[in-house]
Amino acid sequence: MQNTSDFKARTVDFKPGERNVFLHLLTQCNLACRHCYINPAQHGTNILPKETALDWLRLLARPERESNLILLGGEPTLHPDLAEIIQAAKTLRYAVTVDSNGFLFHDFLERLRPDELDFLSFSLDGPDAAVNDPIRGEGVFQVCTENLRKAVALGFRTSLICTVSALNIDHLHRMPALLAELGVRRFFIQVIGLRGKSAAADSLQVEPERWLATVPETARQAARLGIHVTYPKVFLQPEEAFSCAGLTADNYFIFPNGRVYRCPLCEDYPIHSLCIENSQLLRRNGLNEDRFFKLRIPEGCVMSKLLHSGNIDDSTDGGQPRRISCCMLKQEMLPLAAR
Asked: Which pLDDT tens digit goes with each residue over 75-87?
């Protein structure tokens, strides 16, 4: 058995020229998770027709280079044409991931071959029903884990996303054993954001010390079990430089009403820097998110300071403000076999 000290997190730097397209096909969902970030007043309520979704994907595709596509909702498998959209996206040189709550509507697993999808990600916020279901809904744990087992058995590459909040952080250390038992080999740990429902629920937030004492150790335990773990950097050390994904990466967060954000922290506000109209990607004039990305402040991320200051009010022992990294900056811990 390896010592946990053998496993150290590394920061995954932004890759210049990498393109990540986060496409919300719809905002409807069969669940009502307590931390849902979807805001219908800002994101719309319509379902993208298949033809529109493919038109938008063609608009952002790069024939000369692969791009990453993450298909989202609401619950994306509620879209009746999801399988066809995935198959078409693969012809446009997208590496495709679907983020699902695990209910997998419209016979999703039967309508797609495992080799047509790069990753199928399941969302689960606890190691058992007693922890997960008060967050995501009664009966969700059983349905999600049953469908996850089925996906693994069919040969789909699967991952699991856990959103850490005050409701489940004390149980996070139990998640790696569940993933190993389910046969999942990629684990994404997310921090609760001050967006959507959680923006009005301060009780969901996790104190910095609690996050730092829990998440890296859980990642080490998962890596020991052969699981590849990714989690947000969140806090910068004094010697680390701040970097903004809005300036160095090529990320597009697209909603069914045509809004296109470059920073996910801004999604509760009509300050999107781009929009899609008449099959064109247009830059918006005015004081929008992209006007702020170049600002440098002691706290690190200017968007966190402006829009989510509750995340950075704490100070270090020296009285200096905590420095928050870009929300897109990740750390990863690899199992020994993957190094």
From this structure: 999 999 999 999 9
Three-state DSSP class for residue 216 = helix
Q: Regarding beta strands 119-123 and 186-191, do their DSSP bridges make them parallel or antiparallel, or are they unpaired?
A: unpaired
SS3 content of the chain, % helix, strand, coil (to 5): 35, 20, 45
Whether 161 shows a pLDDT value over 60: the answer reads yes
* pTM for the model: 0.93
Evaluate whether residue 302 is within a structural domain. no
Which residues in the chain belong to E strands, given as ranges?
A: 10-12, 19-24, 67-72, 94-100, 119-123, 158-164, 186-191, 228-232, 250-254, 259-261, 274-277, 280-283, 330-333
> How many whole angstroms separate alpha carbon 204 and alpha carbon 224?
29
Nearest-10 crossing angle of helices 175-182, 140-154 = 40
Tens of pLDDT, residue by residue over 129-152, are: 999 999 999 999 999 999 999 999
**Count of domains observed in the chain:** 1
Domain CATH number, residue 82? 3.20.20.70
CA pair distance 266, 269, nearest whole angstrom: 6
Least confident interval from 164-168, 216-220, 302-306, 316-320: 316-320
pLDDT for 1 equals: 44
37 assigned to some structural domain: yes
* Domain span holding position 109: 4-242+326-338
Distance, CA of 33 to CA of 274 (rounded, Å): 28
Q: Would you say residue 142 lies in a domain?
A: yes
Q: How far is CA 301 from the centre of its chain?
A: 18
Report residue 158 CA to chain centroid gap: 15
Within a domain: residue 158?
yes
Length of the chain: 339
CB 122 within 8 A of CB 161: yes
Q: Are 197 and 248 in contact (CB under 8 A)?
A: no
